Amino acid sequence: MTVFQQRLQHLQARLQRVEAFAARHPRALTASVVGALSCFAVTAFGIAPLAPDAAELPKRTVVETVAAPSIEAQLEELSAHRIGLSRAEATRSTDTPDTLLKRAGAFDPAAAAFLRADPLARRIFQGRAGKMVHVTADASGQVQQIVVRFPAEKSEQQGSHFTRLTIARDGARFTARTETAPLQAQVALGSGTIRTSLFAATDDANIPDAIASQMADMFSGDIDFHRELRKGDRFSIVYETLTADGEPITWDSGVGRLLAGEFTNNGRTYSAVYFKDSVTGKASFYGFDGQSKRRAFLASPMEFSRITSGFAMRFHPILNTWRQHNGVDYGAPTGTAVRSVGDGTVEMAGWQNGFGNVVKIRHGGDRLTVYAHLSKIDVKKGQRIEQGQPVGAVGSTGWATGPHLHFEFHAGGRLMDPRAIARASESVTLPGYAKSQFLQTVASVRTQLAVAQTMDGVTATE
Predict the structure, then answer these.
(1) Which domain holds residue 212?
(2) Pair (311, 420) in one structural domain
(3) Nearest CA-CA partner of 237 in 211, 199, 198, 265
(4) Partners of 258 in the beta sheet?
(5) Do residues 27 and 139 make contact, with C-beta atoms less than 8 angstroms apart?
């Protein structure tokens, strides 16, 4: 009998002992180990006949003592290992503790009772649905740990931190605690083609609405997104998404800033990058040539909305007469934020007849902007205002047939078309000392945008 045949008989004898052990310990893991060892035996048996006859090979006796752990001991240790599961489930508006745990594959009445009774644990089911709940349970379905992440509770930490709720089993009891941790930024790439509207294209590419609004701001000095958008226009962008413990977050502050973009409108391509001055700390969008995209006045007092009435003659919906409309009306739901289009000082904040709740801001150079029909006012008379700062919210106060913002621009005592003023206003220049750092930033985003251009209709993270 050859050495190989002796070893094969020895291995078969061990397998018989393993099978007997598996019969006494019918655990899923034990059966898996037995199956793996059985496959090894079959493989060894199948390969052996392919080898040349052992009698034809030179023979040499080698004696070696190998200390191998007992298979029975290894199987005992493996059988003692507790198999568990870890699963993430998003909360639903109709969820109860029992339905949530059942959907996660955990069957634990004690855990469900704790989720109903504990004030911290009940936060899982309060507020908006869609919270991501991570449940860890053992093989019997007994909950070991539940982790949920929320927006930070302190206003100064919102957008930069998150709150982690941890529920852990401690013997027969459960404990719940919360802690605050910083969000981490992750770079994402996306691109799309305009077929009907900007937001339809960004939705098709799974790009968040907040990033679409920032893109409209980035190129507002180059493109009138209300009137100049064309079917077939293309865009590519680089932006930030925020994660909590490495997991994408689902609440509103889950999107960071737009870092760079290229937009081809009617055959002409515009490029821009987000750049922060390391000396002053101020940030803005700049073209790749170093020319600032930020002008003294924004093109719109709202991030993105629908113009319902432009700066032109119109039929007045209340007075039922044709008259000059000396402003721009933006249709938007009640409560939509309204922002100042430029730096200035609040000249008026209150009620004014047909304007309802109105804010008037005085800017340099004898220029004044008016924001009317507001549902609420967020500023006071005499307050200094910066460009982009919220001044109120869309409403339908005064002479209004529905929720919208009436916006006016006065220059030298005359009413002007706000969009024409924004385009003609002076731009903010890049300081000379920042050009070297700026060029490095541009070189970095050029590569990312080149990759994004190949991903029409999709997004990817780095």
Answers:
(1) 185-293+434-461
(2) yes
(3) 211
(4) 239
(5) no
Contact 355, 327 (CB under 8 A): no
Q: How far apart are CA 365 and CA 96, in angstroms?
A: 60
- Bridge partners of residue 324, in order along the sequence: 313
**Measured between alpha carbons, how far is residue 95 from residues 102, 116, 117, 252, 331 in Å?**
10, 12, 15, 22, 36
Residues 199 and 274 in one domain: yes
Dihedral pair phi/psi, residue 274, rounded to 5°: -80, 130
- Tell me: the pLDDT tens digits for 404-435? 999 999 988 888 887 777 666 666 678 888 88
pTM over 0.85: no
Q: Alpha-carbon distance 57 to 382, whole Å?
A: 102
- DSSP code string of 270-295: EEEEEEE-TTT--EEEE-TTSEEEEE
What does the pLDDT look like over 4-49, one tens digit per residue?
556 556 656 665 665 555 555 544 444 444 444 444 433 333 334 4
User: CB–CB of 295/425 below 8 Å?
Assistant: yes
SS3 content of the chain, % helix, strand, coil (to 5): 30, 35, 35
* Amino acid at residue number 33: V
- Amino acid in the structure at residue 412: G
- Whether residues 321 and 243 share a domain: the answer is no
Strand 404-411 with 427-429, pairing = unpaired
> Total domain count for the chain?
4
CB 313 within 8 A of CB 337: no
Residue 9 one-letter amino acid: Q
How far from the centroid of its chain's Cα atoms is residue 460's Cα? 12
Give the C-alpha separation, 408 to 403, whole Å: 17
